[in-house]
Every structure is written in structure tokens, then in C-alpha cells.
Design goal:
Elements: H1 10-44, H2 46-49, H3 62-80, H4 87-95, H5 100-132, H6 141-168, H7 172-200, H8 206-212, H9 219-229, H10 235-257, H11 274-297, H12 300-323, H13 332-357, E1 366-372, H14 374-377, E2 392-393, H15 396-411, E3 424-433, E4 438-446, H16 451-461, H17 464-470, E5 481-488, E6 497-498, H18 501-517, E7 530-536, E8 543-547, H19 552-560, H20 564-567, E9 574-581, E10 587-590, H21 593-600, E11 613-619, E12 627-631, H22 638-645
Antiparallel strand pairs: 1-2, 1-3, 3-4, 5-6, 5-7, 7-8, 9-10, 9-11, 11-12
Length: about 650
């Protein structure tokens, strides 16, 4: 009978196990220490058991789990295919009577098993601990399955990308570097493009696009959000990454079969890929250079110089890597081609710049318009406090008001990089159109020297919609509030606590009436004398409100409850004010009651202006200064200005 030759080459498998078996053992031990062992240590210690995390297994050293998941697969791929980077080893391996396709499948499969086995074994250990000990009350079977699936998927995807890059390069160092560049490139290039568009186009909503899309462009950044921040998995994105992994393996197969053996020790072994590498490096360094020069100078002329210098530097670096020499000037024609492409791109941006910046939809096309910041619009709970709601304008008059402000911002000299020490606003506007499309713009502008812009801004901030969306008292969960802490911002001691439900309800209603009745703000940073902390039954939800003596309804409720005098502070209670300049180099003591009252009425929370003063308040009967605020130089009384100028 004819003998059959097995398609499984045991010698190759044994060789691969000798190469990477130690790495598999170390990976298993690392995961074991991070999860099962740490959980056991915490559970068996009564002191630490109280603080054990419940639920997701990614709550245990998530940073380390993520780092291992994006580094260990790269080590596996680099070690298994390092023979492609040495000519003698490559010639020897490919002289064996084994097809290249079989070599690829054997190496990839062996590495895949050794890579995933530590994860699976630790998953089994975690499940056994859950099933046979009391640890099961801290995580369940679905938590283990979720941990397994996420880690296996990320590891396999990075491993597949590493194998693909191994077919592209002939250098060991480039294999590692290019793997991370390749995996991060989609997100990295989008970040560079978006930052440069913000530089070139006024109103470009950088954070909106970064939050909405960039994180999803790379598996490293996408799974970082899942592992570190417990973001939800999108099955659409998982499908995209899975399809990309399959294509990468098929691509690696095709490249390996067609790879020429003499191409070892070259950065990019396929000639048709070299222009992609060359122009990709040039383009990225060019954008980095332009962005750096713009951030340093704010000048468009310097920005253009930065683009030119960056493109030249990037071209030289790419050519030096490809040719392994700094004698790269013979290929100047390639740079001229790129320069022509660059000119065409900038001309295109220049042609669309005006139409982009002045693209404001007709009111009749707008269903509603959002006015606020990116975090509130995206409902990012990590950045917005409870009780703050997205602000939408739906009435025609309100939409026109927002558009008038936007047009004034565009026409004014205020830039999107306004000095933060001025009265600066950072505004995000999204038009949601009736046809389902959205138009987003982001601006930073100063109100300091533009009375018209300031009037429009305060008109919006004085609207009832704005107040209701941006004041927590309008959106509190009354059922969750069991008490209020009332305190003065000037008194060093704590104020009274209100637990009577009727008084709590009356205070909430009074605060709403006072906020609704206040006119457009003259200075939003004006000092608020009193603060109310809302104590809730939910420890992760925190509300507070600030007010002063002009809140008549609120003061009336406190007076009726006999609480107002416990916290009330008036200028007559102040022994003196201590004025310190911005750098705390000069100090002035103010004791005149007339000056104290004047300054007291013009205090603000904080000023970043260099000519402003810090105001320390010393109350009668107190040994130390109880509070510190700020005052603008222009708001000081003339008598104090004269003393400061002496």
C-alpha cells in the first residue's frame, strides 16, 4: 500500500514550541498573578475583601492587561518569523521540501495556540474559583466569558497584524516598529488630519470628530476604551475588525508565497510598497511640522514653513530607511511629485475654506440646534456633572439668535485660540437638519473687546432654556435628596444641615424662581456668597447650587426657616481685606469700610489677568483669612488704585 505523508509537520511545531514556549509560560504567569492570584489574596484577607471589585474582570489592573494584550502577540509574531530577516536562515528554511503555504500555516497556528492557551487556562481557573468558592459572589460566568472573548479577540487581531507586517519587511527592528505604526496608523493619521484642519479652518470641531470616530480607527485605542474605561462593545466594530483580521491573514499568505528570498535585510521588501512608505512618512512628518510651528507661533506664515520643513525632513528620513544611507538626494524627483501633490491639497483647502467657515444653514432647514460643549452633547458622564442637560433650541427666534452669534464670531477678530485669561467662551454648535444630516462647528472666542458679541452671548445665557439646561436645580432627582448642607463661602465653619422635606422643596422652588428671574449675566464669574450641597441617597450623584443676597425668594425661605442669620455675611462683618498682586509680590491692607463694601460688591471667583488682584477676607473675630477671591484692576475703587500706584 502507498504510504501517506501527513500534512502536519511535527518538527516545525516542536521547533516553534522551543522558540516561543517560554513566552507562553510567562504570559500565563503574568495573567495568573494579575487575576486569579490577586482575587484569591484579596478574598482571603478580611480587610481587603471589603474593597474587592465586583463585576467586570477588567477592573483588576486594567492597564497591565491592556499592555500585555498589545505587546505579547507582537513578540510571538516577531519571534516566529524572524528567520525571514536573516539571509542564511531564510535560505535554509526555504530549501526544505515544504511549501511556503504550509510553513505559514504551521507557524501561524502554533503561535496562535501558544498565545491563546494562557488566556484560556486563566479563564478556566477563574471559572473554577467562581464555581467552588465564595468568590463567585464577586463575578459570574458571563464576566469570565466576556473577559475571555475580549482578550482573545484583541490578542489574535494584533498577532495577525504582526504576521502580515512580517511578510512586508526584512528587518527585525522594522518588524516591531512597522507593526505598531500599521495598527495605529488609521487613528494616527486621522488625528493629524483633524488637528491640521482645525488650524486651517475656523470652526472645525476637533474634539467632536476625535471623540466620535478616531478611537474606533485602531484596535489598540478601541480596546483601550473597553478594557480601561469599560466602554460598551460595538458589534459593528467587532465585525469590521474581524473582517480586517481575515484579510490580513489572506494578505500575509499572498505576500509570503510571492516573496523573493533575496529581499532579506531590507526595510520594505516589495518595491510596489516602497512609495507608500516613502510618501506616508513624508506626509505624517509634514503635518506634524506644520502643526508644531502653528502651536508655537500662531502665525500662518510660520505654519507654511513648518509644512515645508516637515515634508523635507520626512522625505529624507523615509529615503534613508529604504536605502539604508543618508545619500538620498538622487531621488529628488519623488519629492517634487509630493510637493506638487501638497500644493494641490492646500489649494483645495483654500478654495473650500470660505464656503466651509460661512456655511450656516437656513432656519427653515433646521429642526433644532445644540449650543454648549462637546462633552454634554455626547453625554460623556466622565466630564459632565449630574443635572446638566444638553441644550437644544427649537424655536425660530432662538435659532436665529444662535446664528447671529455664530456670524459675529466668524466676522470678529476673535480667534479659536483666544487667550484663556480673557472672558473666553468655548462653544460647540450642532445643527440637526430636517433631512437627518448634522452640521457641527466649534469656536473659542473672547468677549473682552467685542460688545456686540458679548451682548449676544449674554442674551443666550440669559434665556430660560440655557438656565434650565445648565443649572442642576432644574434637573435634580427630588426623591433622591434627603438633606441639604448650607454654608457660606466666607465663613470658615460649616453651616446648618436641612433635613425637613418641606424646607428642601421650598428652597428648590425658590432657587428656580430666582434663577429664572435674574437678568442676562453681566459677569458670570461674580462671587456667589453661599453654597448649597444636595445630599442624595446615591453616592455617585452630587448636586450643588450657589447664590447670593440678591436671590430674594431663596433668602426669604431661609429667613422663614430661621437659617439665614447662621450663614449671612455682610461687608460690616469684614475686619479688613488683603490685596495681593498676581505674583504675590506686593500686598495692601484695606480697612476703610467704604472701600471694603465697594470691593466686596465687585469680587469674582477668579481672574487670570496679570493686572488682577487676589482678595483675602479677614472676618471679625477670626484669626486667619477665611476666603480668597479675585478682583479686576478696573473694578478697584480710585482710592485703592492711587495707593497701589504710589
Amino acid at each position: 500500500m502507498p504510504s501517506k505523508t501527513s500534512s502536519i509537520k511535527k518538527q516545525i511545531i516542536r521547533h516553534d514550541i522551543r522558540l516561543t514556549g517560554w513566552l507562553s509560560v510567562l504570559y500565563f504567569l503574568a495573567l495568573f498573578v494579575i487575576l486569579p492570584l490577586q482575587i484569591l489574596f484579596q478574598y482571603t484577607n478580611p480587610e481587603t475583601r471589603r474593597y474587592m471589585e465586583k463585576g467586570s474582570l477588567f477592573l483588576y489592573l486594567p492597564e497591565l492587561q491592556w499592555i500585555l494584550s498589545i505587546t505579547v502577540p507582537v513578540f510571538f509574531g516577531v519571534i516566529l518569523f524572524r528567520y525571514l530577516h536573516k539571509k542564511q536562515t531564510s535560505d535554509f528554511v526555504h530549501s526544505m521540501p515544504i511549501k511556503r503555504s504550509a510553513l505559514l500555516h504551521h507557524h501561524a497556528a502554533t503561535g496562535l495556540i501558544l498565545l491563546t492557551l494562557p488566556i484560556i487556562l486563566n479563564g478556566i481557573i477563574l471559572y473554577v474559583l467562581k464555581a467552588f468558592t465564595g468568590i463567585g459572589s464577586y463575578y459570574n460566568g458571563m464576566n469570565v466569558l466576556y473577559w475571555l472573548c475580549v482578550l482573545l479577540f484583541l490578542n489574535v487581531l494584533i498577532y495577525t497584524a504582526t504576521n502580515f507586517i512580517g511578510m512586508v519587511t526584512g528587518l527585525l527592528s522594522m518588524h516591531v516598529v512597522l507593526t505598531y505604526i500599521f495598527v495605529l496608523f488609521p487613528a494616527g493619521i486621522m488625528i493629524l488630519i483633524f488637528f491640521n484642519l482645525r488650524t486651517l479652518l475656523t470652526g472645525f470641531p476637533l474634539d467632536y470628530y476625535l471623540d466620535a470616530a478616531v478611537v474606533k480607527f485602531s484596535p489598540i485605542s478601541y480596546f483601550m476604551g473597553i478594557i480601561l474605561s469599560q466602554h460598551r462593545i460595538s458589534w459593528f466594530m467587532i465585525s469590521i475588525f474581524a473582517a480586517a483580521g481575515i484579510l490580513l491573514y489572506l494578505g500575509a499568505y499572498w505576500l509570503y508565497v510571492h516573496r523573493k528570498l533575496e529581499y532579506t535585510s531590507q526595510a520594505i521588501v516589495y518595491p510596489f510598497m516602497q512609495p507608500v512608505f516613502r510618501f506616508g512618512v513624508t506626509f505624517c512628518v509634514m503635518m506634524t511640522g506644520g502643526l508644531y510651528f502653528h502651536e508655537m507661533t500662531g502665525s500662518m506664515s510660520w505654519t507654511v514653513i513648518g509644512y515645508l520643513a516637515g515634508s523635507l525632513l520626512g522625505f529624507i528620513i523615509a529615503e534613508a530607511i529604504l536605502k539604508k544611507t543618508w545619500r538620498v538626494y538622487s531621488n529628488y524627483k519623488s519629492y517634487l511629485i509630493f510637493a506638487g501633490f501638497l500644493v494641490a491639497v492646500f489649494l483645495s483647502v483654500y478654495l473650500v475654506k470660505e464656503s466651509y467657515e460661512n456655511n450656516i444653514p437656513e432656519v427653515s432647514e433646521v429642526e433644532k440646534v445644540y449650543f454648549g460643549d462637546e462633552f454634554t452633547y455626547n453625554r460623556d458622564e466622565d466630564y459632565i456633572p449630574p443635572g446638566i442637560e444638553p441644550l437644544y433650541f427649537t424655536e425660530e427666534n432662538d435659532i436665529e439668535m444662535v446664528q447671529r452669534l455664530q456670524k459675529e464670531v466668524i466676522e470678529s477678530s476673535s480667534s479659536q485660540f483666544a487667550d484663556s485669561s480673557d472672558d473666553t467662551r468655548y462653544t460647540f454648535i450642532v445643527y440637526e437638519l430636517k433631512n437627518g444630516k448634522k452640521l457641527a462647528r466649534s469656536y473659542a472666542y473672547s468677549l473682552e473687546e467685542n460688545p456686540k458679541l458679548k451682548k449676544l452671548q449674554y442674551e443666550i445665557e440669559g434665556s430660560s432654556q440655557y438656565k434650565h439646561a445648565n443649572n442642576q436645580v432644574f434637573n435634580v432627582d427630588r426623591d433622591a435628596i434627603y438633606a441639604l448642607d448650607l454654608q457660606s463661602n466666607l465663613l470658615p465653619s460649616d453651616g446648618p444641615t436641612i433635613s425637613d422635606q418641606n424646607t428642601i422643596d421650598a428652597l428648590l422652588d425658590a432657587l428656580k424662581k430666582d434663577i429664572d428671574s435674574t437678568h442676562t449675566q453681566i459677569n458670570p464669574d461674580k462671587m456667589q456668597t453661599y453654597t448649597i450641597d444636595f445630599l442624595t441617597k446615591k453616592p455617585d450623584i452630587y448636586y450643588y447650587a450657589s447664590f447670593d443676597d440678591s436671590y430674594e425668594n431663596t433668602v426669604k425661605v431661609l429667613e422663614d426657616a430661621g437659617l439665614y442669620e447662621d450663614i449671612r455675611t455682610v461687608p460690616e462683618d469684614i475686619a479688613y481685606l488683603q490685596l495681593d498682586d498676581y505674583n504675590y509680590e506686593n500686598t495692601l491692607k484695606v480697612e476703610d469700610q467704604k472701600d471694603i463694601k465697594y470691593i466686596f460688591d465687585h469680587l469674582i471667583e477668579y481672574s487670570g489677568k496679570q493686572d488682577s488682584y487676589y482678595v483675602g477676607i479677614k472676618l471679625d473675630g477670626e484669626s486667619d483669612i477665611s476666603a480668597e477671591f479675585s478682583i479686576e484692576y478696573d473694578d478697584l475703587p480710585e482710592s485703592i488704585k492711587n495707593q497701589l500706584e504710589e
